[in-house]
UniProtKB/TrEMBL annotation, chain A:
UniProt subcellular location: Endomembrane system
Organism field: Brassica carinata
Record bears the keyword Ubl conjugation: no
Biased composition (Polar residues): 745-763, 891-905
Clathrin/coatomer adaptor adaptin-like N-terminal domain ranges (all copies): 58-594
Protein name per UniProt: AP-4 complex subunit epsilon
From TrEMBL, chain B:
GO biological process: intracellular protein transport
Organism: Brassica carinata
InterPro entries assigned: AP_complex_ssu, AP_mu_sigma_su, Longin-like_dom_sf
Superkingdom to which the source organism belongs: Eukaryota
One Pfam family in the UniProt entry: Clat_adaptor_s
Keyword Transit peptide: no
Keywords: Membrane, Protein transport, Transport
GO cellular component, one term: cytoplasm
CDD domains: AP4_sigma
The protein's name in its UniProt record: AP complex subunit sigma
Amino acid sequence: MEQLKTIGRELAMGSQGGFGQSKEFLDLVKSIGEARSKAEEDRIVLSEIDILKRKLLEPDIPKRKMKEYIIRLVYIEMLGHDASFGYIHAVKMTHDDNLLLKRTGYLAVTLFLNEDHDLIILIVNTIQKDLRSDNYLVVCAALNAICRLINEETIPAVLPQVVDLLNHQKEAVRKKAIMALHRFHRKSPSSVSHLISNFRKRLCDNDPGVMGATLCPLFDLISEDVASYKDLVSSFVSILKQVTERRLPKSYDYHQMPAPFIQIKLLKIMALLGSGDKSASEIMYMVLGDLFRKCDSSTNIGNAILYECIRCISCIIPSPKLLEAAADAISKFLKSDSHNLKYMGIDGLGRLIKISPDIAEQHQLAVIDCLEDPDDTLKRKTFELLYKMTKSSNVEVIVDRMIDYMISINDNHYKTEIASRCVELAEQFAPSNQWFIQIMNKVFEHAGDLVNIKVAHNLMRLIAEGFGEDDDDADSKLRLSAVESYLQIISEPKLPSLFLQVISWVLGEYGTADGKYSASYISGKLCDVADAYSSDETVKGYAVSALMKIYAFEIASGRKVDVLPECQSLIEELLASHSTDLQQRAYELQALLALDARAVESILPLDASCEDIEVDKDLSFLNGYIQQAIESGAQPYISERERSGMLETTDYHSQDHHEVPPHALRFEAYERPKPSSVPTQASTELVPVPEPSYYSEAHQPISTSSVSERESSEIKLRLDGVKQKWGRPSYQSSTSASSTPPQAENGTSSHPDVGVGSSSLKPRSSYESKKPEIDPEKQRLAASLFGGSSSSRSDRKSSSGGHKPAKGTASKPPKENPIPVQPPPDLLDFGEPTATSVTATDPFKELEGLMDSSSQDGGSTDVMGLYSDAAPVTTTTSVDSLLSELSDSSKGNPGTYQSQTSKGPNSKEALEKDALVRQMGVNPTSQNPTLFKDLLG
Amino acid sequence: MGIRFILMVNKQGQTRLAQYYEWLTLEERRALEGEIVRKCLARNDQQQCSFVEHRNYKIVYRRYASLFFMVGVDDDENELAILEFIHLLVETMDKHFGNVCELDIMFHLEKAHFMLEEMVMNGCIVETSKANILSPIQLMDKAH
């Protein structure tokens, strides 16, 4: 049997002339495959570039040869080198009559060129021709290319033909045509806006493949405009129902699951349609319920569908029953040993928590396990969950944890994200000013260079403005605590520039305000900063300005100012600075020191950073001067508009804003081809048309408010929310919590370290006896994270008894093994489908009979032995790792591919391929025997 | 948009196939691949998720013998489904090549691409029936 297979294989390959490729190509692939390092690979590719550059210049290259060259070009680009010298040959190949060559040409072109490349214009013609071909495979190849290469400008060139192809008799063509239309819609929605009905039509296509593909554009369309597709809800539901009832051809089954990828797409669409729509949601209840009941949670793909159901339910308006089913599915995920499923569980929890906030409580210990897991991905996901469930009762624990994590990671992208989340949570839920300042200090200290500069400005403003209350006492306390903490931190080495700017500014404004610190002390510190960070001009600028304020306040209050010697030398140094900004500041400081108290006070009044400075834009104080000049014979001023011959209009607004003197540059985009529905009023306000200064006074309030609105949405810190959250109610409740001992109902949660063990666990005493093994550390954490809600749990118990049993079961399992001892399943197959269920459809099972069933490990050792015989190079280490891998994977697959572990043909197959390559004249050394290893083995 | 790229990279970090569904320049691709490969290969595959977040991508990866399959997706994609999509891809290649190995993909790079072209368009999964995926390739083979 096995011999037959070998012969068959050789015949198959023989018919293509070996691999159908030249020795040169085989050598290239072999040498790339055996390259040991990136440097070696680069050397091979560079020499290949030289060879190809020469070869492509030769006249009359046979077509088959040319195809090979093109593939070699693809290799060059894939390995990171430029192959643009050969692009034109790939373009030429698309003209070829031979289908394989044509398709290879198209493939190479789509890999090489972006849609705006100059060469595309040479292909459009070919595409047009190919769309008319009688051979549907040619048409398909052209449609593939359209999906990659056509841009907004070239859409009209192919659009009519693509639309015709929507009714092609071949389903493959219809499918690709609909995807081409999808692409057009993405590139330029207006180009196909009149063709939208086709997407609906194709949804009813007889072929399930076309129907399935049509779901992709429909998903896009529906997410753009839900309301227009509400009529399709029942259609989607009935399609999903039919799919689950196995009405689709068996070839769409995947591991015995009927068309799972179509099911998932349908669920995504349903989530959009059912969002906030009770009646649409109700139509879905039945099929969703069926899915939960039927879905096989022992396979990966079954869990993928279950997860999608959870997502769908978190979007629509669910029934209590579905919610319960979703919660059950989540708890199964969380209890699983597979990290992937835990990840999905945490994600699901984060989604469901919006609808039923108490759901996380059942899983507190599982969540904490995930938080402490060494796997970074899982940890991040858990932080995301914590972020979603933060409230004023647990903000301290969560933000502390987040900051610890932020300090521990190096990935700047994520560090930035988590830093801004910390800031956001701190601004929203801070229990006290001291805490808030402390958190901000930590964020700036450890991620100062990554935080958006606006965060720093917000902090300064917050400290300056207080918190929107008229409580001056609280404000000055806050300022004092900020100053104190900064004076502590300031001497630490290497602080981020942004943080130093904040520190300098605050010290300048409020350093001496309280009278606790003397001016000379603060100014000494500021000089130290300017000295220690002498290369950072911005920091220096802030420091000098802060010094100026300190001295100004001193002078204004009538005290005698002693400029420190180090400060004096700093000023002198800066007077000669290369930076004009620093020079300016130094001169100003020097000038200020010479002024009397009254003048200084009006220049720099105390604590006036938030006062609005009124600017007399009319410059009316110059009127007398102008009058004088005119009287003495000067010409009156003619405004720029008058000079350019434009009529003065009383209402500037009513005029067209786009009207700019003809010689000026136009900064706005040209009008859109189709007048969009954007109201012109809004656009005039947002377009930054340069305004003459004399006009803007009346207009200003509007424009500034719109600007500040935009700003605040940009920076993502909800400053508007801050004031509310920081308003009296929350602030008071938190102070009462901190002042009263832990027996207060809410107080327990804000005191993670005090008395949690006793009081917050009390309501749970019924479970307490059942889980004695849980680490008390973890319990404490759980209590502080979830405590806020657990205290309210006791009242809820009486109202909803339905949750009770679930809770009991949910909190049990983690106690048995807080640290999973079981060897977790291998990554390759982490779902543990039962062996019986899979073998029935296992596509490899049929092959099994053909194969020799020699024991795998033994077999592979032999092969490895052969390899090392063939070449003297010793690769024992790699052989070892290979073997261990093999045995690992066979161990790790308890279920799915158990049947294959006894299959054992991998090594044989590899040997055959090896033999064949040898026949072709390529001698594989044992450099990289993994090349021959079965991927599915 | 769903799938943003599909990569096949071996244990040594060498790229064996790369398909992007959004345009990146050669330099961007090289940088991205380097970062992702370093990240994924550094993870010990015992006991860890098959998902990694990187920049704005989420990468779902799966290892088969010496070869890593990595799929970059948007944030709202179903990771488990993508993981199974990878398996479907490998099964499909296995059906065509018979006990597919890294070398098959290297020698038949264009065929591996053709299969992907059938399965994914515009970053969406459009075909999952192995018969439908392979039939154009078989027809082309026959013609030669």
